[in-house]
Sequence to fold (76 residues):
Amino acid sequence: MVTQDPRQLAAAVRAACIQAALEGYERAQIAGLCQEGAWECAVDAMRMVDLKAILQDPAIAAAALQQQRDRGTAAA
Fold:
């Protein structure tokens, strides 16, 4: 289902990018990369976000946003 609300679509894309970056950075750090290398992995992860999937089902990215929020709450 494609959303008609551009704000929802933008929020879904942002959430997916943030989630991808966090996961990419974390994987790189676990693999032992330096901060610069981990940042490059995070950027690459954002580049690989499947925008087609978000356009077809923004709920996928909404779930990623909720995970991100939950993760932030757990860290606090």
